[in-house]
Write a structure and sequence with these properties.
Six copies of one chain form a homohexamer. Chain A has 13 helices and ten strands. Chain A has 335 residues and is an alpha/beta fold. In chain A, strand 1, helix 1 and strand 2 form a beta-alpha-beta unit. Chains A, B, C, D, E, F: Keywords: Isomerase.
Chain lengths: 335, 335, 335, 335, 335, 335
């Protein structure tokens, strides 16, 4: 087995961590990518209450699970997003949202991210996965016209708001891994290039490779691994199924709900979609990635309790032992 | 398990129903889609002989099998087909063929269809699957030229001959489900639209979704489910494998026998071909279809006794439990 | 010649209408689709000042040009868009923007749209093309999660704000033709279906077929014509070139400027891109569309004065005389 | 110019030959492929009436036109077709149809074909293009089941009926060139192989390469030229446009009229479709074909008087002068 | 089970034959395709030393393995290759290489091939698989220019050098099966045609179907089986995975090592790549091939001890029992 | 007009430069990319004989032609190629070939390249286009196995042999532009990366963008321009037509002659193939390339005297005037 396989807990946030751990261990996962949800890992409490933090570890230990990364997608999203609205209030939690004043929310969210780095350190975890939000995502349609300076400012805003957070990460020896995703400062290949440049490619900031949103944007997830080889800090497996072209299904989802078969694409349990996971795992090995493969399980057409172990089985079936020698090295005839 | 899986018995008509039932039950099927072949279900006898009808049920009960639909493809084919020839005689059976006079055959075949509805009722079955034949299929090449009035008349002929049959279906509370197929009044998407219009979209007439002939005609079987959502009355699974283009293999089959690898496409056991069954089953759920998935097993390259259980296994592997809630419903942070 | 060809004036708004008319006539256009820009057609002034309105006509007459539609994309955009920001101020003009209060701007923009209908009537024009804006476009990424009720409300907001405007259009006997476009209530096929339903498919509201944004979303512009046949009120020709997949160029444009060759697609002069204009013009004839073909010229790689006549030449080359009879009607042998 | 370009007159059969000749010459054609329609070339009369035959030549001479082939598609169709119905009556003409008795019609049609060979000889023409009909075309759907022996018999029926005709062709030194086409004994690649074998590849029987029906069947027209190199006796240019897949448009045409944009494919004027004519003309040269390129003009969306000269212009633009030497023969450095 | 499955031993030449046999038998293989490597089968010794030859058989017998073919790729390669260099020395072995004089090496390699036929005969094996080398492969780029006469001479050189070897094969009643491959006289479809013609299609020379190098050259491996039906003497299964186009990965491998994910294609364990093995096995049955399916296992991303049994499992899963009757033969209604 | 268009003279080397100049000027070319062939530009003589050099200029001046680059493909090829054989003797010319000793030929060819730089300088030309040859091209098939060290040595050999030549280029202020091509040290994307690294990306060495060999290798010529933006020193236009897949035509050309339609691809006159020249020219502008577009005319199916002016017309038709401003810059409403 070349990589441990973990379960990302965000999609199970309605269950206590104990239950998620029990399920995951029962299915054979090696560990959890714990989401900083209050039901799973409350960062405020973890910094204030040693017993609480210890309880998190004990839950893992009891089930023989490890942790290589923790996630804080929701708080990260609030750092740069513009505007902030009811959607953000829904994911922020009352402590961060507070009175809802825009800069207040952003400051509290940024603080949550630094706390997340500190909790990671305390848990012996080197990587925090998550989102950044974006000041300019909403201009993606480019009408009404958007001057180039506005786009430039969006990347600078990202750098202004995240560099201080990343300084704390550096202090803790923890790295942040952005999941490239619509709504974020980087949502495809060239925005990733630009985002990395905006923070001078500082090592504290890397990527959480999740191919699901690359597929429908025509971004090759294997190319992504190879070209950003030194920035692949974590791997999330979510699969996407592209429907064959019918001239009606659109790339943007048509404001249709997840699982509506009229959508042009949808998330499916890893192995049921179009992500070339075998190629991707080979590419990850080629760049020297040795971390976990984490299953972020989202599929509107399956019960998650059937799906998660199915996805685990699929992923493990592709994690071959790697060879000791080149196959053609034995062709030499010596006698 | 979201749908029962049945075996269509037409491809096993050389065996007595008892044997088919034993095989199917042994492989794990939930029921049979019984073909009205004399070896399986003789409609004349079933209406005249209560004991015979009871014996059919007992065979099923003995093997723990249910029945949700019965089929009468052959008799339906004779209702509209033009001309009738040796091929029709072969499938008609001597009772329907009689002296072979064209309108006589058609009348007897129509009567067989009404009898099939009555037998279905007696068996507690709501759906009869089958064919319609077509007066205009043979003009498909459009040379020598075919006036529009001839095409119009073809659809009207279908309505004239089938409306009285459907009246009997309505009387019995049974629905007819046409398998869209070359040789029938509807063989693709737009002919299905036109056929439905020809009978004013009366509810007695719906569709038996079978994707196998859609594939090589470039009809998207998932689109078909969504656009004819209120007319999908039954589901037959037969798979089709399209050969990659080589400039020689044609879409029309080149008068080559099934299984000849020079054909541009061929039927294969469900799961070995190009039908997107996972997408299709999700679409069926989205339109509220709750009926059986019936395996119509045809593959010229496999023994049917190896193939049928293989196909069952494949189909069942895609019938996931459906979820209780949206995956993103748990993202809200409450505390 | 089956359709007149007009030039859309929005891309020439820096020039006085006189100059645009002279250029267009010189290149051989049959008319203009006049944008309600102050340099071309100031609707406030046109309603208050008969001489001004007359001057517009005289400019056209002097150059032998006709007008079949006028456009007011910018004001329409302001009616529903949310939030309104610097981009909207830039296109609103000071009269509509006023103090910038959100509902104030929306009300003034709505009034501008009703005025546009009245001006159209006075000019003898039956169609106003334009945008609607959208309350929900910005939720397109669906993260943070967006409840279904929010999407529903977006379509209802559109209906609430546009129905009163359309009442005025009805009063004037003028129709509104929405250009389906990102940022609008309808940006693809299924959002168009939903938008039409939201206003009960009232005849005052139809579509300005512009294929350019359909191409990169995988929407078939010919299917669009056929399926929305009774709602195609106007035709704008803008072409789009899709770059072959390279795994890096994304469908969303990567916040890269128009004309940047790293984009996955870009606008090009009609005829240089992937829009199947020949198929589209045939489809337009088949649905009985008899209006103008209007060239909306946008191409970041060509000078507009070279491009507009080039595009005109291309479009005209596809506007064949239609046949008098079916080609196979002469195959009958009479003697 | 490497090949003369002719106009096939069948699509102009409502006009007297004089008018067609005048039009064709005016557009710049080099000759006519004259259809044996009574308005153009009445074979009975031509064999009985020397003056009539002379008049045909004079019409051509007057307009500077040549003739390399004459066509008799309609009569050929009647030789094998089964059943014969109203469609055949429409194309047969009263003399061939007579009392309509099946074998009577077939015999008279066969005689017309032998007469066509004799007329060709008298006109100094070596090639007759046309159809054969088919006893088995109507079994193309393969349901109701069709035994292999029936297919075998179809090819044998073709041989039985055509060998005597071809004997007359041999006697006259004229060759027959079948247009591979649905409804004929050969409609794709493998049926062409089988048809040629059925008559032992006798030289009197060859092919009229017309790519239009190959396109939608996925037959590569260039492969066809290369693989049947010794049987390409004539070339007809008709173009076909395949619509992009939309999951609804079918390969079989859906009983929709020519020109209906919901069809999956349609005929278009040469150069507007998907036939790779440049590749094809190069392939024709490579096999040593030196005959005419004949334009069979069919396009439901264009007036034929606009279309024919447009197609001529397109075809001529691809008939380059061929080179004298290999381009890399000059790379040798001699001093 | 329709075909035995064997393991090709060349990729295991660093292990003694005993070990390979034990492994293969343990995994369930039916036999070995033994490579004439000194560790597995030393042809010189086998002809001189009966006990040695017997020991080879005993190893197989002990493990219940059969042998249908032996291979001598390396010696065959030396027969025609030009120039011979360090690469050839590496595979030649010291006995064949000797003093390294070009014609000396070629003569000794040719003798090894005749010895291989003799050993095959003694082992009761009818088929020797292998390579031929090529005098003209190195001119594949066609710059500097290559006269046609040079190409002609390459095929003649092949015939001159191989005909005497094939005479010995004929004498022994053994057939040679060339693996079509870059570096060989036949590396694709048309070079195979030409190579067969060069030796007048003598039956002693046939093909070892290995699809792996066909895939990246766009050669359809199923077409290959059908078109060379009478020359398919053996089957080797090696799979190839083509990476999706990204505009940078090239077809020629870019001098990148096997397993480098920047390559445009790579070898993978059978079942993980793009070879249509199901179609291919059906085609092999259709041409009457009854020999073994041999797994030539090469995958730079897997340990061979995990991969070989995995590939065996995949291949066996496609070797269905073939049917006894046509599926539609039971549709006839007899009573 | 954004770029001058030149004619590359290598394909006209059988004609005196005077004749080529007259032809090119007559067709409307702006200049010549002169091949250092003795008939066009003899570098030895040009360095020794001022009058000769002056005569070259006068020929150009007389016809109003300019020169931006000269080419020496043949001599460059000899610098690294291994082995050298009859093909090289054919292109070397007797002075370079001399006694044919390998290192002698290489040294003389290297000297010719330095002389070419000196002649360029004297002609006021900044760029020499050409080939490099390659020590490792012949190992492209990777069988017999090729150790990584051999590949490494191939790039080092290139650096060793070319760095001294490039030193002379630097001294003259002239740049060398390699045409990426099979047989050269760089034949695709990744070999170009590696070749540039081998010489430390020294500015004296850049690329002559010629898309023709990229097409069949699946290299995107536009990506190539963008990724090697600082190394595009010259542009050669040769087009390539890829035949649709037929399962028989291979990517490697099958040792078939240019123009054989069974090849999988072939060179065609610019505009008749698959190179996306419009996209490419836009990309060239985006990287700031301001040099000539040179037509390297090779098409086995056209006479060069028809083809060259045809290609010129095509290329010019895509060299649009570039715009003065962004099209959406005029959307702002100021009053």
């Amino acid at each position: 087995m070349t990589h441990p396989v973990t379960l990302f807990t965000a999609q199970w946030a309605d269950l206590p961590l104990e239950d998620v751990a029990e399920l995951a261990a029962g299915w054979g996962f090696d560990g959890l990518e714990i989401a900083c949800k209050t039901t799973h890992l409350d960062v405020d409490r973890a910094l204030e209450d040693e017993a609480y933090l210890r309880s998190r570890r004990e839950i893992l230990d009891r089930h023989g699970l490890s942790v290589w990364a923790i996630s804080n997608h929701a708080q990260g999203q609030l750092v740069c997003d513009d505007p902030l609205d009811f959607r953000h209030e829904s994911i922020a939690g009352p402590r961060t949202w507070g009175d809802g004043s825009v800069e207040g929310v952003r400051a509290r969210a940024a603080e949550q991210m630094t706390k997340t780095a500190r909790v990671a350190r305390k848990l012996g975890v080197d990587t925090v996965t998550g989102f950044t939000g974006s000041k300019i995502w909403r201009y993606v349609a480019m009408y009404p016209p958007v001057p180039a300076a506005v786009i430039d400012d969006g990347y600078e805003d990202f750098a202004r708001r995240w560099n201080p957070i990343l300084d704390v990460f550096d202090g803790e020896g923890v790295r942040f891994a952005l999941e490239v995703h619509p709504s974020e400062i980087a949502y495809d290949y060239w925005t990733t290039v630009r985002a990395l440049e905006a923070i001078d490619r500082r090592p504290a900031f890397g990527l959480n490779w999740d191919p699901s949103h690359m597929m429908w944007q025509d971004i090759d997830p294997v190319t992504f691994i190879l070209d950003f080889a030194d920035r692949i800090y974590h791997v999330d497996c979510k699969d996407t199924r592209i429907r064959p072209r019918d001239g009606r299904a659109g790339r943007l989802g048509s404001h249709l709900a997840w699982g509506n078969p009229r959508r042009g694409w949808d998330f499916v349990s890893a192995g049921l979609g179009d992500v070339p996971f075998d190629d991707a795992f080979r590419a990850l090995d080629s760049i020297g990635y040795t971390g976990p493969i984490s299953i972020e399980w989202e599929d509107s057409g399956m019960d998650r309790r059937s799906g998660a172990p199915e996805a685990l089985k699929h992923v493990r079936s592709l994690l071959w032992d790697r060879p000791q020698q080149a196959f053609d090295s034995v062709f030499t005839q010596k006698s």
